[in-house]
Design brief:
Elements: H1 11-18, H2 30-33, H3 78-83, H4 86-97, E1 101-107, E2 110-114, H5 115-125, E3 136-140, H6 144-153, E4 157-163, H7 167-175, E5 189-195, E6 216-222, E7 233-241, E8 246-254, H8 259-267, E9 270-276, H9 282-290, E10 296-300, H10 309-319, H11 339-342, H12 360-375, H13 379-383, E11 388-390, H14 419-424, H15 440-444, H16 450-461, H17 467-481, H18 484-495, H19 500-510, H20 512-515, H21 529-561, H22 567-573, H23 588-595, H24 600-606, H25 617-644, E12 650-652, E13 660-664, E14 677-682, E15 685-689, H26 691-708
Parallel strand pairs: 1-4, 6-9, 8-11, 9-10
Antiparallel strand pairs: 1-2, 2-3, 4-5, 6-7, 7-8, 12-13, 13-15, 14-15
Helix pairs in contact: 10-12, 18-21, 19-21, 21-24, 25-26
Protein name: DNA mismatch repair protein MSH6
GO molecular function: ATP binding; ATP-dependent DNA damage sensor activity; mismatched DNA binding
Biased composition (Polar residues): 8-18, 26-35
Length: 709
């Protein structure tokens, strides 16, 4: 007998399925994707009169010709919103708040792109238009990292919009409303992250960094000309590599050629620049146009977006970013400014709410940066690291730099290579293509680790010119050349190291408690949660393995390190617990503790870390609490079996609907106690709950939350 023919798949179904496949490359498919042979489709959004270029208004209803027009927002008429479907209404509401971003809008297990965003998705990502008169494309949740990174690298802003309710939660919410409308009967969606080229943190959803070198978000504030003496400039700057989480904050005077500013942007190449609208002088704007022409530049409104120094310090105090920092003895809350920022506040103000003279612009630049990170929903995870350094221009004496605590930086004198010199000598990039080919950096860079490559670049930008420091570095080379077998073995070990600098920042930002329940990501419904959990655990275990490798390197060097002439090498490779010259911490106790804390292989496989008994007292307490509640619920069920004279009673349900007591219809209605409340039914059974079950289950959920925190 011949096998039955397989059911054929219609062309419409094929078209819908192909929209979710990841293309082999990101070339535009727009010419054939919209289902028309030749000619271009006029989409529904292109017919909207209020969306036409020249007729658009911002959220405050200011026209494009208005000098205060805000291109990042959009006015959407109420009558139009009321005619749309509930889900699309929410999309337009979000689009009106961030008109300059591409919305990756979660619908079920897919991120969908609508209207003008769908056109970008097809043109830039190679997605396919779905059938219909309105532009619509999308991809599965697991593809977010790949697709978002492509758009961000091309200069787009990407907003990740997640469902923060399940359908059951939505139904429960509607029951609490007196008269729910059709717009209430849709799951809540919130923006969980806005990603730009200068604010990438490479979370578990984003994937791995595509390049080794740092990309900085630079915030700059300039003192207006009438306040400055002569023709010079005074700048306040704040710049951060968001993948590492280190803030550089400083204020400096500059000459009329803006030499120090030019040097700063050459040494710390910004991917994105923030400035206060109307603040930069004509000379500064020329630098933005000439040197930073390919850099994203965004003007922020004075006061409300680009904060002054007082508001910056006020927000730092109110938001409690540094509550995990070590508090001083007289600080009860445990929220204290990091030393670098504390030094920028007035000594006369015990609350640290007044800037010190000479740091007003620096703190204002930090305020602009903080506002933007807050807007992108990453302020808490980055600021809470408390990683701040004062930026002092290279040509200022190093001893004035309050942040020069690293022994690498305590060199007293470094050569000034300004932006013009770096370009003319082709130190970092060649003059032909702007790439690294043929440059001094490419020639010298044989570093084995990503963080080594970043450090070498900074060393090249500011070479040593202090004879004793140069001599010590040469001694370090001789020491390594004198131990060739160890040097070769160490090189092989270093190649295995992950990018620990970025990895530690990533691990710091992973914890949900850190973001708090106020962060929408803590409410997001993610369908690939197990995949993300496995990635988190893989990152954490990679960091542990990295530290083990570093410990192994120290052990290899120990036999020969005592004979080293270089003070620098002795500091790096000797343990500070065993030698007065050593600065390397003894990691053995902590690594041993984590080795026995949980089953590493099981965690990799399941995506769940289960601490072993005795490792975490709070976890053990939560486990015991859950067991006690389970025991209490079982004992209660046994009592009800005797009470009703029925052995067939059992609990039913999953998740938040667990512990509904199933009672067969064979038990007469008269026998059912009054305190039993019907929760649901099925053929031949009724499911009840009681005040005692609810009390025990609520207590169990509380313990489960503590266990899973």
């Amino acid at each position: 007998r011949a096998p039955a023919p397989l059911p054929s798949v219609t062309s419409n179904t094929k078209s819908r399925l192909s929209a979710f496949s990841a293309p082999d490359n990101f070339e535009s498919q727009s010419s054939s994707a919209n289902g028309t042979e030749g000619g271009s489709t006029v989409w529904d959004h292109e017919k909207l009169d209020w969306l036409q270029d020249g007729k658009r208004k911002d959220a405050q209803r200011k026209r494009q010709a208005d000098e205060n027009y805000d291109p990042t927002t959009l006015y959407v008429p109420d009558d139009f919103l009321n005619r749309t479907t509930p889900g699309m209404r929410r999309w337009w509401q979000l689009k009106s708040e961030m008109f300059d971003a591409v919305l990756f809008y979660k619908v079920g297990k897919f991120y969908e792109l609508y209207h003008m965003d769908a056109v970008i998705g097809v043109n830039e990502l190679g997605l396919t238009f779905m059938k219909g008169t309105w532009a619509h494309s999308g991809f599965p949740e697991i593809g977010f990292g790949r697709f978002s990174d492509v758009l961000v690298q091309k200069g787009y802003k990407v907003a990740r919009v997640e469902q923060t309710e399940t359908p059951d939660m939505m139904e429960a919410r509607c029951k609490t409303l007196a008269r729910p409308t059709k717009f209430d009967r849709v799951v809540k969606r919130e923006v969980c992250r806005i990603i730009t080229r200068g604010t990438q943190t490479y979370s578990v959803l984003d994937g791995a960094p595509s390049e080794t070198q740092s990309k900085y978000l630079l915030s700059i504030k300039e003192k207006s000309e009438e306040d400055s003496t002569g023709h010079g400039h005074i700048y306040g700057v704040c710049f951060i590599d968001t993948s590492v989480g280190r803030f550089h904050v400083g204020q400096f005077q500059d000459d009329r050629h803006c030499s120090r500013l030019r040097t700063l942007v050459a040494h710390y190449s910004p991917a994105q620049v923030l400035f206060e609208k109307g603040n930069p002088s004509a000379e500064t704007l020329k630098i933005f146009k000439a040197i930073l022409s390919s850099t994203l530049q965004e003007g922020l409104n004075a006061g409300s977006q680009f904060w002054d120094a007082q508001k910056t310090l006020k927000v730092l105090a109110e938001e409690d970013y540094f509550k995990e920092s070590e508090a001083s003895a007289d600080d009860e809350k445990g929220s204290v400014l990091p030393p670098t920022l504390k030094a920028m506040t007035s000594e006369c103000d015990a609350l640290s709410l007044t800037p010190k003279t000479g740091y007003e612009l620096a703190l204002s630049a930090l305020g602009g940066c903080m506002f933007y990170l807050k807007k992108c929903l990453v302020d808490q995870e980055l600021l809470s690291m408390g990683n701040f350094e004062e930026y002092v221009p290279v040509d200022v004496e190093m001893e004035q730099a309050g942040g020069a605590s690293s022994f690498f930086a305590q060199t007293r004198q470094r050569m000034v290579l300004d932006g013009v010199t770096l370009a003319n000598l082709e130190i970092l990039q060649n003059s032909l293509t702007g790439g690294p080919e043929g440059t001094l950096l490419e020639r010298l860079d044989t570093c084995c680790t990503p963080f080594g490559k970043r450090l070498l670049k900074q060393w090249l930008c500011a070479p040593l010119c202090n004879p004793s420091s140069i001599g010590d570095r040469l001694d370090a080379l001789e020491d390594l050349m004198g131990a060739p077998s160890q040097a070769t073995e160490i090189t092989d070990l270093l190649k295995k190291l992950p990018d620990l600098e970025r990895l530690l920042s990533k691990i710091h930002s992973m914890g949900t408690p850190l973001k708090g329940q106020d962060h929408p990501d803590s409410r997001a419904v993610l369908y690939e949660e197990v995949v993300y959990s496995k990635r988190k655990i893989a990152d954490f275990l990679a960091a542990l393995e990295g530290f083990k490798t570093m410990k192994e390197i120290i052990s290899l060097m120990e036999p020969v390190a005592e004979g080293f002439r270089s003070k620098l090498m002795r500091q790096v490779v000797l343990l500070k617990t065993e030698n007065e010259d050593g600065l390397f911490p003894d990691l053995s106790p902590e690594l041993k503790r984590w080795d026995t804390a949980f089953d590493h292989q099981k965690a990799r496989t399941t995506g769940v870390i289960t601490p072993k008994a005795g490792f975490d007292p709070e976890y053990d307490q939560a486990l015991n609490g859950v067991k006690d509640c389970e025991k209490g619920l079982q004992e209660y069920l046994d009592r009800q079996k005797k009470r009703l004279g029925c052995k067939n009673l059992s609990y039913w349900g999953t998740g938040r609907n667990r512990y509904q007591m199933e009672v067969p219809d064979s038990v007469s209605e008269r026998s059912v106690p009054e305190e039993y409340e019907v929760r649901s039914t099925k053929k031949g059974w009724k499911r009840y709950s009681t005040k005692e079950i609810e009390r025990l289950f609520s207590e169990m959920q509380s313990w489960e939350d503590k266990r899973d925190a």
